[in-house]
Amino acid sequence: MKALQFTTTGEPLVVTELPVPEPGPGQVLLRMKAAGLCHTDVGVLEDEGWLELLVKTPITIGHENAGEVAAVGDGVTDWKVGDRVAVCPTTAAGAPGFSFDGGFAEMMLVDEQTLLPIPDGVDWVLGAAATDAGMTSYAAVMTRGGVKAGDTVGIIGLGGLGQIGARVAVLEGATVYAAEVNEAAWHLADELGLAGVQKSIADFPDVVFDVIIDFAGFGTTTAQAVDVIRRDGTVVVVGMGKLESTISTRSLILNQCILKGSNGGTKEDIAGVYRLMATGKLTPVTTTIPFEEIPEGLHRLHDGQVTGRLVAVFD
User: Fold this and answer.
1) Cα separation of 64 and 125, whole Å?
2) How would you classify the pairing of strands 84-87 and 64-72?
3) Which cofactor does it need (predicted)?
4) CB 3.0–4.6 Å: which of 16, 91, 211, 216 could bond 239 by disulfide?
5) pLDDT at position 281, please?
6) Lowest pLDDT segment from 236-240, 264-268, 295-299, 300-304
7) Alpha carbons 38 and 40: distance in angstroms, whole number
8) Chain centroid offset of residue 207 CA
9) Strands 27-37, 107-111: pairing kind
10) Are residues 152 and 175 in contact, defined by beta-carbon separation less than 8 angstroms?
């Protein structure tokens, strides 16, 4: 089988011919159908700091994966050949492309605990995208933010994650406002069902926010969220545009702000995304490429030339 393997920092992925792995006890072999490309993959290629997180080199990367069950090992009873499944990257088995060979290959061997079903009505492309971008956005809004119907929610940043997070909040019955510095993205407001959009979350003086999710994380964005959140409201920080933020302790204390970080999510969060995708009302923008164009796709991702989530599809 063909696989795209990472060898070391600063070097391109290598097309390698590998034997098809045999599933052992508790393992499942997948025939890959779709694999998402992420800025994390770009980081692995460029920053040697990622090396210490890899269980081995060379290693097949790719951590947003959807595929069809091709074979099962001894003791596997929950999955059968032909099942449509996704791979959760946050289980105790570790992350694909880091703890074991990932999805930039024709076949992929996983522990059965990583799998969850892709429901009818969700295609392979969205099935893959939901396992990272979808999971992270949903977890920030619903699991960490606790958004519920009737809440007034602020979303900072309408990038890939922010768009999904905003739409999730709308579909769950919240009134949602967005802060986005790039006015070229403001046209998304109607499509996402937003109540309003401005450059800063502080530009809604008459809005009382129950929850604010900062998908940008540029320091000042978090500080502004803490300033404007209602008393006992929640601010969730997802984005890492800057790795430090100076916030007003006065605002933190007087607002009794509940300030949380959010990192990834769980299988339950992916299932939550699938529930909304299956209705046809959550359809994140995606760009697809064939498997052979993954290296070029990572260059496009690095250069900011991708619209929505970039997903490789397999014949």
Assistant:
1) 10
2) antiparallel
3) Zn(2+)
4) 216
5) 97
6) 300-304
7) 5
8) 29
9) antiparallel
10) yes
What is the pairing mode between strands 209-214 and 152-156?
Answer: parallel
Please, what are the domains in the chain?
A: 2-130+265-313 (3.90.180.10), 146-261 (3.40.50.720)
Measured distance CA(67)–CA(75) in Å, rounded: 20
pLDDT > 90 in the chain, percent: 93
* Residue of 158, 184, 164 lying closest to 36 (CA atoms): 164
Mean of the per-residue pLDDT values of the chain: 96
Calculate ∠ Cα 131-89-262, nearest 5°: 80
Give Cβ neighbours of residue 94 (< 8 Å, ≥ 6 apart): 55, 100
| pTM of the model as a whole | 0.93
CA separation for the pair 297, 308 (Å, rounded): 13
Partner residues linked to 273 by β-bridges: none
DSSP for 28-87 reads: EEEEEEEEEE-HHHHHHHH-GGGGGG-SSSSEE---EEEEEEEEE-TT--S--TT-EEEE
Alpha helices in the chain (DSSP H): 39-46, 124-129, 135-138, 160-171, 188-192, 220-228, 249-254, 267-277, 294-302
> CA nearest 62: which of 92, 84, 85, 32?
32
Q: Does the pLDDT of residue 313 top 90, yes or no? A: yes
Token duo for residue 202: 């502080």
Q: Is 268 exposed, middle or buried (0-12, 13-18, 19+ CB in 10 A)?
A: middle
Q: Judging by DSSP bridges, how do beta strands 309-313 and 84-87 pair with one another?
A: unpaired
Pick from 176, 206, 174: which is nearest to 189 by CA?
176
Residue with tokens 């040697």, as numbered in its chain: 48
Least confident of 39-53, 98-112, 224-238: 39-53
Residue range 183-202, pLDDT digits in tens: 989 999 999 999 999 999 99
